[in-house]
Design goal:
With about 150 residues, the protein is an alpha+beta fold. It has one domain: Regulatory factor, effector binding domain (Multidrug-efflux Transporter 1 Regulator Bmrr, Chain A). Helices cover about 20% and strands about 40% of the residues. A hairpin with a 6-residue loop joins strand 3 (about 50-55) and strand 4.
Length: about 150
């Protein structure tokens, strides 16, 4: 597993946000619920891609997850949706498929990251980027993990 490294610009993600803990993760469900809002978001989308963004809220216990799209020009956030900024970051980018997202995350955090010269930049968001035409479990997904070199001062 060898990532590509990218300096990523800040983006704004508009979408459906839910709080998940290890006991109540429902990623498939949130994406199904998101589709009811797709029409309200799509016209503001910068790239027509889909983003699954993790906002860590209380350590290892839980997180806010947004299923959404990168947007610009949103003056008013539609009811039921959330607009959040994903700050710029230097990222290790891993390619996988929809079917192998969980396996890829396990490999990144249990194997690649500990053995690499990098550590996760915890003040930035990890996210998935799904191409606009994602339809099956075999479609390619990119996982962006914000990193910095180990022992680098924040």
């Amino acid at each position: 597993m060898k990532p590509e490294f990218k300096n990523r610009k800040a983006i704004n993600v508009l979408g459906l946000m839910e709080y998940f803990t290890p006991d109540n993760e429902d990623y498939e469900g949130i994406w199904k619920r998101f589709m009811a809002y797709h029409g309200k978001i799509n016209n503001f989308s910068t790239d027509k891609a889909y983003y699954g963004v993790y906002f860590y809220t209380d350590g290892e216990k839980g997180l806010d997850y947004i299923a959404g799209m990168s947007v610009e020009g949103v003056d008013e956030v539609p009811e039921g949706l959330t607009l959040r900024e994903v700050p710029a970051a230097y990222c290790a980018v891993f390619e996988c498929t929809v079917k192998t997202i969980g396996q890829t995350y396990d490999n990144v955090f249990k194997n690649w990251l500990p053995a690499s010269k990098y550590e996760q930049e915890n003040s930035r968001q990890t996210f998935e980027r799904y191409p606009p035409d994602t339809k099956t479990g075999d479609d390619v997904v990119l996982i962006y993990v914000p990193v910095r070199k180990k022992n680098e001062v924040q």
